[in-house]
Design goal:
Strand order of the largest sheet: 1-2-6-3-7-18
Helix content: 25-40%
Shape: globular
Strand content: 15-25%
Amino acid sequence: MADGTDSLKSVEDLIEERKEEYLETLYSFLRIESVSAENRGIDEACSMLKELMESIGIETEILPSAGNPFVYGEIIRDPSAFTLLIYGHYDVQPADPVEEWLSPPFEPTVRDGKIYCRGVGDNKGQLMAQLLAIKSYQDAIGELPINIKFLFEGEEEVSSPNLSAFVAENKELLTADLVYTSDGPKHDSGAPLVLLGVRGITYIEMTAKGADWDNHSGNKGNIVPNPAWNIIDLLNTMRDSEGRILIDGFYDGIRPITEKEEALIRSLPFDRENIGEQVGYADFNMEKEEYYRKLTLEPTFNIAGFTSGYGGEGSKTIIPSTAVLKMDIRLVVDQDPDDIFRKIEAHVKKHAPDIELKNLGGMKPSRTSADLEIVDVVKTAVRAAFRQEPVMQPSMGGSLPDYVWTDVLKTPSVIVPYANFDEANHSPNEKMGIADFTDGIKCTCHVIDAIGKMPF
């Protein structure tokens, strides 16, 4: 057999030869409208995954849960060998607002080297890159050097309500030495990214009610209360002008930043102007360390939506009867979403007891130590695959159910996104570069090969 470098070159050559074939496989998967929020396309997506995985030689089964099913597969070379668990999700966000798409949201369309389709970046393109890597490695080199397990879920886009229980009930089945996830975008510089954790989330809804129906704002002005002001007044008790959260105990228990994490932040690339352009905010004016601290290591308190009264064209003079606020609150280790909700609940009862509060779901934060040997192995493999030094962050800004691996399965977890930074996941015109897709296939092959060379 050729040495490692030649073997991986043969894998990369095969991936390039099969690029059109692999793209057609991805396109077929993308056309399945597996929208978990609308409970459609789920069975079809599971069936396609099972058929594809079995054709690759992965022993596969569809496992039921209290919600959408899980697709589990494995290739066990040697029970004593290193085991890598690859996680992803086959569900996607709704396409709304459909009118803002430049091409049909569930018909993959290529423009300027990028595939436009709902779910292409989040997460079907990245999931498919993992599976096609297994096929490519086996066809080009032969037997895998490690054991591989796969777990694909269908509820990530609705906060993975059944993943934790499933993992807790199937610890033996899912036992692994490392969990590897490809989700989210690369670094804004375009560099590959290695992430050692995620922020958690608590999602809440507040409803304030006034009169039984909307009233004329002149004839009933100063007489009928406006529920929108009730919510605004409450918000002013929850956050100060500097952005600090005023809820009692909100910051309790947050894990201190380590010296290694501080060093990681100092080493990260930073281009203020480019970031401003990428997010569409020309007034962006943060320094590097502030930016990365706020993005990865500090909680947020975000208003995701505020609905009350009339929002159409022109004017309508009313006092609305109802106001509804939705908030997503990103959490960092070791904050707990249930604990944070209870603290918010206590604050609302104290300051605005008439406002109804609902918990719409949550997810714990997670972090893996940067000091582990396997982290360096993955980083080295990513560097070799992309021919570029990867950026390594202690956490990503967004939320994934990474805690089920580090807290429930008690296994280290690394996230290596394959999608382009401007993937626009969750937005109209979601996209993934064709080169990003094929590079993702190559990267998975490099990671498998590098882990296989570790002394066990």
